[in-house]
Design brief:
Length: 471
């Protein structure tokens, strides 16, 4: 589904005289537009209304679904309602994976149903399901040590994720097991795999997420079970019991379908061909309503564009918002954007991603050439008023990562994420987890940074371009 792919020219917009005077007075008094942006953002909060519509009226937006198409239609019209007539869509071919029946239970030495959900892109079980003895590991090293003992078994990857932990026990370590666990278990002859849900809250929630496939390695059915159920399996195995599990998954992958990225622009006044991208992903997993992942990011990006537009600010360079398709199970939206705009990437002066939920904005991560952090720190200085001025190394995000080979400088909007992984990819990803004030302040921070980067006389030094990867 592609809408209005040719961008429209901006139409004149008349602002109320009082609003212009107030904003300009504030800007002059505080030596720049950042204060005016903050004042306008905090005086007229609209970000929450955007995420509320996505979460409550459209709901989960899995790629290939009718609800994702509805989100595209809404986003284009919402941009235009906010005065961004230059809004359009660009084609993306996405995978269509459909969740079906999901039943996982222990059949011996006890009979117990387990809370479970297939991982995204998992293959189904054969008709009648799979029944096998369970073996438990905590890491790929533990799996390798099993060797032949994994053959014919269902492998349980039972590695807890700990709140506030470093790399060893954080999301990265656990998600690598989710992504490659089925592949590595299949290499050893396993007939199925389970993973302890990747989360930090114990409410018998199940968390989904994408699992990978590899050419030449047979795909096996792979599902997540709740933390409490993973603990039950562990206790039975630790007691010396032989644990048999029966799993039935009805998921399937259908042919790719056409969907779209959504784009909108505020064209620059002096250097319109130089571009600052601010992005998020419009798709979501299907267990919850996608409020924090990444409806909140969409609201932050869209609201920041509305704020800048409402003040009549026209920066030197173009600000381009991109709502990416297919971040969750393929990254096709980010890849399609980089391919479609390959000729422009050398003129992309920065790309910022908002994909850290709805928590309070705390600052910015930066991946750029020497001196880049100093430029971002200077632009972010007015954000100390809302606690969002801290700048550190390390920026980027999944959707903007395909621009990395071109050396585009990356920023990440850093946010407070203490409870983010309580709900992430689970049925609890719903609107009640979004604080309207925190969300609006995050949008204000994004608006200040996007406008500041687009209007600054200097540009952030580029990252060193990546060499082509050997084939």
């Amino acid at each position: 589904m592609i809408l209005d792919r040719r961008p429209r020219a901006l139409a004149p917009r008349v602002l109320a005289a009082g609003a212009i005077v107030a904003a300009c007075a504030s800007c002059a008094e505080n030596h720049g537009p950042a204060a005016g942006i903050l004042e306008a953002a905090l005086a007229e909060p609209r970000a929450y209304g955007k995420v509320a519509y996505l979460a409550d009226r459209i709901g989960p937006r899995l790629n290939g679904s009718a609800s994702y198409d509805a989100a595209v239609l809404w986003a284009v019209e919402e941009f235009r309602r906010d005065g961004l007539e230059r809004a359009w869509t660009e084609k993306v071919m996405v995978p269509r994976w459909v969740r079906g029946e999901e039943r996982v239970r222990i059949v011996s030495p006890v009979d117990a149903s387990l809370t479970a959900a297939a991982l995204g892109m998992s293959v189904p079980t054969p008709e009648g399901g799979v029944a096998a003895e369970a073996v438990e590991v905590e890491s790929f090293e533990g799996l390798s040590a099993l060797g032949e003992r994994a053959r014919g078994k269902i492998v349980l990857f039972n590695r807890p994720m700990r709140r506030g932990a470093g790399p060893e026990w954080g999301y990265g370590a656990a998600s690598s097991l989710r992504h490659r666990g089925g592949i590595e278990a299949s290499r050893l002859g396993a007939v199925g795999a389970l993973i302890r849900s990747i989360g930090t809250a114990r409410y018998r929630l199940v968390h989904t997420g994408m699992t990978g496939r590899e050419d030449g390695v047979p795909s096996i059915p792979y599902a997540a079970i709740s933390e409490e159920d993973a603990d039950l399996v562990h206790r039975l195995l630790a007691a010396g019991e032989t644990v048999r599990i029966h799993m039935t998954l009805g998921c399937r992958t259908e042919p790719d379908v056409e969907q779209a990225n959504v784009l909108a622009e505020i064209r620059g006044r002096e250097k319109p061909d130089e571009i600052v991208v601010i992005g998020c992903h419009l798709d979501s997993w299907d267990l919850g309503t996608g409020a924090i992942d990444d409806g909140a990011g969409c609201a932050i990006v869209m609201e920041s564009m509305r704020i800048v537009r409402s003040l009549g600010l026209v920066p030197r360079r173009t600000i381009r918002a991109v709502l990416f398709a297919n971040e969750e199970n393929g990254l096709r939206g980010g890849k399609a954007y980089a391919e479609t705009h390959a000729g422009e990437l050398g003129r992309h002066v920065a790309a910022i991603e908002a994909d850290s939920g709805a928590g309070r904005a705390t600052g910015w991560g930066v991946a750029a050439g020497a001196g880049g952090e100093e430029i971002v720190r200077r632009i972010a200085k007015p954000l100390s008023r809302i606690g969002a001025a801290e700048v550190s190394k390390g920026g980027g995000g999944a959707d903007i990562s395909p621009m990395r080979p071109a050396g585009v400088p990356f920023l990440l909007l850093r946010q407070e994420t203490e409870h983010y992984f309580d709900y992430h990819h689970s049925p609890a990803d719903t609107l009640d987890k979004v604080d309207p004030q925190d969300l609006q302040r995050a949008a204000a921070a994004m608006a200040v940074m996007a406008h500041g980067l687009a209007d600054d006389e200097a540009t952030i030094p580029r990252q060193e371009p990546e060499a082509p990867k050997a084939r």
